[in-house]
Amino acid sequence: MDYPGNLFVVAAPSGTGKSTLVKALLELDSRLQVSVSHTTRPPRGQEKDGREYWFISEPDFRAKVEHGDFFEWAEVHGNLYGTSRQAIEERIKGGEDVVLEIDWQGALQIKKIFPNAILIFILPPSYEELLQRLNRRGEDTQDVIDLRMTNARTEVNQARHFDFIVVNALFESALFDLKTIVHAQRLKYAAQRRNKSGVFQALNLL
Predict the structure, then answer these.
(1) How far does CA 76 lie from the centroid of its chain?
(2) pLDDT, tens digit (0-9, with 9 covering 90-100), for 157-180
(3) Is residue 77 classed as helix, strand or coil in its secondary structure?
(4) Which residues are paired to 82 by β-bridges?
(5) What is the spatial distance between Cα 183 and Cα 78, in angstroms, rounded to a whole number?
(6) Comparing C-alpha atoms, which of 66, 109, 63 is closest to residue 88?
(7) Which of 88, 124, 141, 156 might form a disulfide with 130, Cβ 3.0–4.6 angstroms?
(8) Above 80 in pLDDT, residue 1?
(9) CA 145 – CA 160 distance, rounded (Å)
(10) How many CA atoms does the CB half-sphere of 11 hold within 13 Å?
(11) Where are the alpha helices (DSSP H) in 10-166?
């Protein structure tokens, strides 16, 4: 179905800078709304319930799965993550542009349900740099870092299935690339026909 709003789905290996990039993008683009996912993992650092994630217990998460509340969910690094079906559909049906941060498994699930979703994969400049970023973050034990690095190789291999690739070597450049993708999507024929209907009508294009 061709909804009037755009759904931007951003995925990346842990430590690549995905959340920081999306946060900066939201500060620059008032037309973008973020969709908050549910997770069973505990909050990290200054994270707050309902802002970065909805933090819930595994039994509550499983109950939501059984009720069909998620249109995608996956297990990542031993924790469960899911995206509310109702929250996404209501927003893009209303013409809002929504950005969603999830793992690659969820992104590919969403593409099957919403073929018009725009999938964006954030790559690190190298595995060595990714390891340094995970260590600098200082939030994980060595075992967790080792697991994230192992999973990163699998995750990076999924980048070929995404519509756009952004390499986060220099933050400012990566943010510019991300903004460009969003802007270009809004300039597509179908989007311009919806948003500039007066112009299209005057030119007999409707």
Answers:
(1) 14
(2) 999 999 999 999 999 999 999 999
(3) coil
(4) 38, 73
(5) 35
(6) 109
(7) 124
(8) no
(9) 24
(10) 29
(11) 18-28, 58-67, 85-93, 104-113, 127-137, 142-156
3-state secondary structure of 146: helix
End-to-end CA distance of the chain: 19
Contact 104, 37 (CB under 8 A): no
Which residue's entry shows tokens 């993708």? 181
- CA atoms of 14 and 25, how far apart (whole Å): 18
Count of positions (residues) in the chain: 206
Q: 3-state DSSP call for residue 115?
A: coil
Q: Are 13 and 111 in contact (CB under 8 A)?
A: no
Interatomic CA distance for residues 11 and 200, integer angstroms: 35
Residues 97 and 32: their CA atoms lie apart, in Å, by: 5
At 195 the pLDDT is 84
DSSP state for residue 158 in the 8-state scheme:
G
Cross-strand pairs, 167: 123
CA distance 137 to 193: 45
Q: Quick one: tokens of 186?
A: 């809004």
Q: What is the mean pLDDT of the segment spanning 71-84?
A: 86
| Tokens encoding 116 | 């018009």
| Residues 5 and 98 sit within 8 Å (Cβ to Cβ) | yes
Residue 68 confidence (pLDDT) above 70: yes
**119, 108, 103: which is closest to 13 by C-alpha?**
103
